[in-house]
Amino acid sequence: MEAIAKAHTNIALIKYWGKRDEALFLPMNSSLSITLDKFYTTTAVQFCSCLKEDVFLLNGQLASEDETLKISHFLDKIRDIAGQKLYAVVNSVNKVPTAAGFASSASGYAALAAAATKAIGLEIDNKTLSQIARQGSGSACRSIFGGYVEWQKGEKTDGTDSFAKPVGNEQEWNLSILSVLVASKQKKVLSREGMKRTVETSPFYAGWLETVEKDLSLARSAINEHDFEKLGDVVEANALKMHATTLGANPPFMYWQSATIDVIEHVQELRSKGIKAYFTIDAGPNVKVICQQKDEQVVRDLLLNVDSVEDVYLCHPGPGVTYLPASTTENGSKLLFNRFHQANCARTISRNL
Ligand code: 2P0
Questions:
Q1: Cys staple from 116: which of 45, 67, 131, 330, with CB 3.0 to 4.6 Å?
Q2: Ligand 1 atom 4: residue of nearest CA
């Protein structure tokens, strides 16, 4: 019972910001993203009756007890659906610069959901897989699909209508996304905590909810029409509105640092020179800049020249979840599994499945 899956990160053009149900990861608003080609997670999962607990290896190291428990709770949801009580070895390799503040929870939970459901023998479609991935991390549901993806928030309390789907039939529009790493200090408010505090305390959150559906509809039509300026305008406006809600929270907080504003100003300067580039920012100081492919080198070169910029990663729309042959060596899953199987060295967490 082993499977290996690969999933890519995604960048939100219209942001997911706020939950209506924290246990089921149901969002307050729908969101829209591009799956990126450059950053991904590969995860191997093997269930076996010989294991006394779940084992989680991250980038070749045994993960902490806290990290392992999070993975275990997520696997519990999959075990419940499958009616199985077996523990698993999860072996995950992140090709995401996490230390640089680029989030890996989307690709991480998308790959884990795909590998675990396959390894346990569930035959499900990508819509259902997206619903399962959502319950590990909201944005993970969008990483099941490639290209431009919309997560429809749904209305039902059980979450069965809250899942991601590709936007129209759009596969072809090959925009460029530059992930700009700025010289950053430690991030203080995690996105999960930040969105909760904003929903509960920010008077500006109502304004966010009032306008986000309109932003989404503009973005959807811009993608279908390949209207880059229309897309860029709404992407920037939506990001600024999301960040404005944090300033009204109690206590207030902001994800931007001086370097963030530096990059914003350089993008605006590019536009004043006629080069169409637009920024968006997630729950951290780094900036993502979208532009058309014909401009990607000039935009990248200019950003690399900004003093506070440490690196610029050039990305394009990437694929959805794929499954890899069990012999794939990147994870060395067989070897690792055998190690845990034979040595029977797993720490025991007394939980009754
Ligand atoms: C997004 N972010 O749409 C938004 C924009 C951050 C800002 O999704 O609590 O890691 O695990 O559901 O998905 C980051 O939040 O949060 C996020 P959880 P997640 O990409």
A1: 45
A2: 16
